[in-house]
Amino acid sequence: MVGFYRQSRRRNLDRPITKTTTEKMTMKATLSEIRKTPEWHSMETAPRDGTPIQARIPGNGSDNIIMWLDCFIDAEDQDSCGWAFVHEDQEPPQCWTDGACWSSNENNEQSVQPIAWKPVQ
Questions:
Q1: What SS3 class is residue 92?
Q2: Across the strands, what pairs with 42?
Q3: Could you tell me where the DSSP H helices lie in 1-121?
Q4: Is residue 68 within 8 Å of 46, Cβ to Cβ?
């Protein structure tokens, strides 16, 4: 594989930095820049590291404070992840179950997905 190499300190072996690693480093730098701007951004660029964000959710306004969680267990005991409200005093959309946005909720209805985000001010 042609590319960059990083020296392992433990075994003193050269190993390639995979495209995934490079992409992650680029994405982290991009997110760092995006977080500095107060404008609305596409959800594809939203942080998925537990950072609270302000989100626009169709039918639920734009003052929603949510964060990405990847520690859910779904009804079939499978690991799952998704957007969840940070504050209990905020009202999530009716189609979200327990304040979390699932691909489909407990009634097998599709949850309304957030469409834009910006840093919490």
A1: coil
A2: 116
A3: 19-34
A4: yes
Q: For residue 66, with 0-12 CB atoms within 10 Å meaning exposed, 13-18 middle and 19 or more buried, which class applies?
A: buried
Give CA separation, 101 vs 9, 27, 104, 109, in Å: 42, 23, 8, 11
47: nearest Cα among 62, 63, 61, 33: 33
Tell me the HSE value of 44 on the side-chain side, using a 13 A CA sphere: 1
Residue-range domain boundaries for the chain? 5-34, 41-119
Q: Which residue has the higher pLDDT, 63 or 36?
A: 63
Alpha-carbon distance values, 114 to 6, 35, 42, 97, 106 (Å): 38, 17, 9, 15, 19
Tens digit of pLDDT for each residue in 37-90?
679 999 999 999 999 999 999 999 999 999 998 877 767 777 778 899 999 899
Which one-letter amino acid corresponds to residue 83? Answer: W
